[in-house]
Amino acid sequence: MKVISFVIELLAILGFNTAQTSGLGRPPLQSRQQACNGNAAFCDRPYSNVSLIGTHDSAFVGSIVDPRVNQEKSVPTQLDAGIRFLQSQTHTINNGAQLEMCHTTCTELDAGSFQNYSSTIKTWLDDSPDDVITLLIVNGDNVDVSMFDAVFSSTGLKQYAFVPSTSPNQLAINDWPTYAQMITANTRLVVFIDSKANQNIVPYILDEFTYFFETPYDTTDPNFAECTLDRPAGGSAAGRMYIVNHFLDASLFGILFPNDAADYTTNAATGSGSIGAQAQLCESDYQRPPNVVLVDMFDRGDVFAAQDALNGV
Ligand SMILES: *[C@@H]1O[C@H](CO)[C@@H](O)[C@H](O)[C@H]1NC(C)=O
Ligand SMILES: *[C@@H]1O[C@H](CO)[C@@H](O)[C@H](O)[C@H]1NC(C)=O
């Protein structure tokens, strides 16, 4: 989009009437379709066929020395940098009346309201008409999905929500629309929740484990030498997209915290313990690359090079 508007400005400076671009021998500007999540190569690919780097605990932002946080750049900065999959965790305050972005408990870390988190994403989507974002919410207190719906409604984020054509039933892995179709329909927000989804009542908040499986989290092996299906327990890989938990923990007196000292190698594109190395292992297990690789401190290492490699672009 930025490149296109630059070209339009340039043409205007050069005296072209940019309102009639067809006069320049190319179709009228339908720039919306020309870049999907920043790359035209994604436009014709179904949602289920694209690999994304996701920010683990996207809302828990702070200093690298703070063991309670997982990212050092804010959510808008994550999105501006190119992150299109945000994982987050919510709990409640005010006797269960309000959803907050809290880490394990709101006493440990309260990173603001879910309302503010949603508004931030709404604003970003308003300004980014060629982009599709996915939210994965950990519903830490197992609250009714209608609480999330209320916030998505009040912030206006709901207007962008994608509802599967098969709703309330599962959309098969091969039946997802392409990015171009989602952008054209302006349904550019895909929402998953790990518990309490009820697509009969809230059709756009999708059940995570119907659609995905996950590898183990809280790994302390710096080599990430496996790609096992951890959840849903007893589930199968067939027919599910998958999420690889590629963030490293350290353990001190049995307490796990992010091993940020290792982030540059953990988040490298290639090499021992890198995103690329674990993804290769996953591909040999499942004959397809991960749909999502969740990382801590996404700005360390080379996550977008890794993402491009997963997508073959
Ligand atoms: C996307 O499709 C290509 C071509 O069929 C396939 O090789 C690749 O494994 C798919 N990727 C994902 C994430 O499904
Ligand atoms: C709302 O979210 C923005 C963006 O992440 C953040 O900078 C701001 O501090 C938050 N405000 C409140 C009141 O939590």
TrEMBL record:
Keyword Signal: yes
Gene3D superfamilies in alphabetical order: Phosphatidylinositol (PI) phosphodiesterase
Signal peptide: 1-19
Entry keyword annotation includes Signal: yes
GO molecular function, one term: phosphoric diester hydrolase activity
Keywords, comma-separated and alphabetical: Signal
Source species, domain of life: Eukaryota
Annotated GO biological process: lipid metabolic process
Protein name as catalogued: PLC-like phosphodiesterase
Organism lineage string: Eukaryota, Fungi, Dikarya, Ascomycota, Pezizomycotina
